[in-house]
Amino acid sequence: MTAFASPPDWESPANDPNDETFGDVVEPTSLEDAGAYDAVLVGEPYDGAVIGRRGASEGPTAIREQLAGVKTHHFEAGPVRSVGDLGDLRTSGDVAAVQDDLEDATAVVHDLDALPVFLGGDNSLTVPNVTPLLEIGSVGAISFDAHLDCREVHDEPTSGTPYRQLHERGLDAFAVVGARQFETASAYARYVDRQGGTIVTAADVRRDPVAALERALEAVDGVDHLYVSLDVDALDATAAPGVSAPTPGGLASVDLYRGLFRVARDDRIAGVEVVECAPPLADGDRTAAAASRAVAHVLAGHTEGKR
């Protein structure tokens, strides 16, 4: 099985004793002890399947560095606590081999009594992150993404093929939130429609964020387990330039965060990932900062949902 690297030490950069940050509360942990936490972070520093610009292998470290300075207080959920960090999964080989190896490791993580939050890494990792859940019940996926990621696999999987692969493995329900006009082929839009999936465009979210998210949740109604994926390119390119394929016309940060908080409250939530954060492609820390706050909103929603 793919091994974990030692988890990093967390330290807060705050100089005000009242400013509790995630650097104060996230604790390095082992698999043996991880079940004691409400949520655990899992790094996946791999970008060998990226179709466009690479750099997402540096995402886990950058997200952690930014999250360490984010304050833990959420006005609805209160302070977020009980978060462990398992460290990074070591990966090597071609895309198909990495997917197979990681699937064994993520199956162990899914067996824990803690919500796994995977820090990618590229979108091909969605396949091993979700596949173990298909063995234990029906699964619905909500993908916050500018793209549909349901291309056919030809020579090998890519960051554009995960939901085609997962549908072939038995994914029960699927919704995309934040899809852009003129960013997908008509054939792939028809494919999602044939699978019974729901496409919620970025324009739909801008028009009515609450109604747009409810459409996505209706698409996964009735499944046993809910998996949530955030490709950071769901955000408008001005908010997240450091991604493989930045595109204009995307989600506003406030709408994305509201949506993530809402879905993380769902008692069926079984896993979350943040992928395609590529710090070398960004202007400073802007994209990693946006991604880290997405993680914070997920953790806050999960905290609220457990009450």
Please explain how this structure is put together:
The protein is α/β, with parallel strands linked by helices and 307 residues long. The chain has a single domain, classed as Arginase, Chain A (3-Layer(aba) Sandwich). Helix content is 35%, strand content 18%. The protein has eleven helices and eleven strands. Helix 6 links the parallel strand 7 (139-144) and strand 8 (173-179). Helix 4 (95-110) packs across helix 5 (126-134), helix 5 (126-134) runs parallel beside helix 6 and helix 9 (209-219) packs parallel to helix 10 (253-264). The chain is globular and about 55 Å long.
Key terms for this structure?
globular, two-stranded antiparallel sheet, Arginase, Chain A, 18% strand, single chain, 11 strands, nine-stranded parallel β-sheet
